[in-house]
């Protein structure tokens, strides 16, 4: 079984360009998701020609200029820290195109990929176009920024959302899964979590488990870690005193988020 948790690192991949996370189909066993976290310093240039992947480049922090062909999205990005809890800007580029990212300051960009061969318009997903949802009651409250949900016309397969879970709350809870290609009852979407903590020394617990417990891993997840969810339920618990953030990438054969709650815990939803 592939290790589901990936620690952050810093590897210089070009002058003033650093890779901090890399999940590929080859190194993860996933079929539908890849991701790359990069940190750009001034004068750093990140360039990539997409083969059989579409990408959503999320400007996690700082400002960056993203170009593709005649498209130039200058100095996009809205925040210096994800815990400003405001939406940010992203750029979508479909397969076969060449994208370039530069910055005049410092920027951290999460590149979210899914396999695709469809030529779709390159476009800015402006922060103002993120829909914001406040979900849950009691200690199950969280805020969701939908960058590209399953109804988005922008992407072929990619779903990208970011979730803010405040101190002492749970999210991705009650536990749910989407690991069966069985619409209309359930969709098959692989998922990844890119986590950040505030304060940075914090941790969350995340469990990834299946009904038959053939997969059942509970992890202490720290700032900058990535968790891979190939299948199964995947709840997150944030300890008292800390706020949690994660960015989810989801993708599968059909861009539809139809999940199935763990029947043992679905009663949580019926509380008044
Ligand atoms: O609502 C939440 O707590 C976020 C989760 O839905 C998260 O995006 C996920 O698990 C998607 O399958």
TrEMBL record:
Record's keyword terms, sorted: Isomerase
Catalytic activity, reaction form: 5-deoxy-D-glucuronate = 5-dehydro-2-deoxy-D-gluconate
GO-annotated molecular function: 5-deoxy-D-glucuronate isomerase activity; glucuronate isomerase activity
Enzyme's top EC category: isomerase
GO BP: any one term: inositol catabolic process
Chain coiled-coil ranges: none
Record has DNA repair as a keyword: no
Entry's EC annotation: 5.3.1.30
InterPro entries: Deoxy-glucuronate_isom_IolB, IolB_Bacilli, KduI/IolB_isomerase, RmlC-like_jellyroll, RmlC_Cupin_sf
Function of the protein: Involved in the isomerization of 5-deoxy-glucuronate (5DG) to 5-dehydro-2-deoxy-D-gluconate (DKG or 2-deoxy-5-keto-D-gluconate).
Family, per entry: Belongs to the isomerase IolB family.
Database matches in NCBIfam families: myo_inos_iolB
Protein name, as recorded: 5-deoxy-glucuronate isomerase
Source species: Vagococcus vulneris
Phylogenetic classification of the source organism: Bacteria, Bacillati, Bacillota, Bacilli, Lactobacillales
Gene: iolB
